[in-house]
Amino acid sequence: MSRVSPERDVVRVAAGLAPSAQRDVLAGEEPLELRIDGRSLVVTMRTPGADFDLAAGFLVSEGVIAETRDLVAMRYCAGADESEVNTFNVLDLTLGRDVVPPSRDVARAFFTTSSCGLCGKASIDAVRTRSRFRAPDISLHVSSAMLSSLPDQLRAVQSVFERTGGLHAAALFSATGNLLAAREDVGRHNAVDKVVGWALRSGKLPLYDAILLVSGRASFELVQKAVMAGIPLLCAVSAPSSLAVDLARETGTTLVGFLRGQSMVVYAGAERVIT
Q1: Residue 238: what are its φ and ψ, rounded to 5°?
Q2: Could you read off the pLDDT of 19-77 as tens digits, one per residue?
Q3: Which of 19, 25, 42, 121 has most Cβ atoms within 10 angstroms of its Cβ?
Q4: How far from chain centre, in Å, is Cα 89?
Q5: Of 77, 116, 119, 235, catalytic
Q6: Cα–Cα distances in Å, from 50 out to 4, 7, 25?
């Protein structure tokens, strides 16, 4: 049975038809505990797969690491079920010698961010201060026609969503619209962490010439993750939140929402989008 898309028995009910017992494919969701040198850091719910990317991206988003050499090793460790079978739900990380380990407050900050608990000017200033990369300039220019082509490219590689209809997705594109990496996850923030983690592990940070596309709405924490990775342009197929727009404007990030068909709404940084 696939942990990414497990099956469950269901009863399908439709008007005019008798209820029928069927098997349904669902989006997998399991906890992942991240440890630093054996010390528990955080537990997050995620769809199994690309766990190394998720761990690396999480540490980038929290300002702990910014270069490939900052993360020396990652390994699965204890995490057996009642049958003593390894569930691969505990990941132990080893940081570089010069990396300052995250404090215990990181876990609390992560849960607050995930539940949209951050607000106000102080939060925006904190994000701008914590990022190791300079604020993106406006040298990156993209056409609106190219941006309009990105959702279809992302949709074409959402293989698990195709089976389950229950996953978020995030993708990185080059400035010319070429797909660099795409990841799916039950959590939209996890999907972004996974593509950012892929970039760190591939030696591609900062992503000054990249475009981040998310399959849902653009929230504060997603703009925050873009800023922490040096991404100048974030696109979403749905709406942004008010604080996401505020953070994008404060940090010089281009934020595009409602990217559907040939239309879009540019909420910040419109000078990068050429019509």
Answers
A1: -120, -160
A2: 999 998 888 899 999 999 999 999 999 999 999 999 999 999 989 999 999 999 999 98
A3: 42
A4: 19
A5: 116
A6: 11, 21, 20
Q: Please, which residues bridge with residue 235 across strands?
A: 213, 256
Q: Coil, strand or helix: which one is 53?
A: helix
In sequence order, the 6+-apart residues with CB closer than 8 A to the CB of 249 are 268, 269
pLDDT in tens, 104-159: 655 545 543 433 334 445 555 666 557 788 766 668 899 999 999 999 999 999 88
**Measured between alpha carbons, how far is residue 273 from residues 7, 146, 250 in Å?**
43, 10, 18
Tokens of 176: 């010319």
Euclidean distance between CA atoms 26 and 162, whole angstroms:
11
CB atoms within 10 A of CB 53: 23
**Helix %, strand %, coil % of the chain (to 5):** 35, 30, 35
Answer yes or no: 116 catalytic.
yes
- Encode 58-83 in three state secondary structure: HHHHCCCCCCHHHEEEEEECCCECCC
Q: What is the three-class DSSP state of 223?
A: helix
Domain spanning 142-274, CATH architecture: 3-Layer(aba) Sandwich (3.40)
Amino acid at 191: A
DSSP string of 4-48? SS-EEEEEE--TTS--EEEEEE----EEEEEEETTEEEEEEEE-S
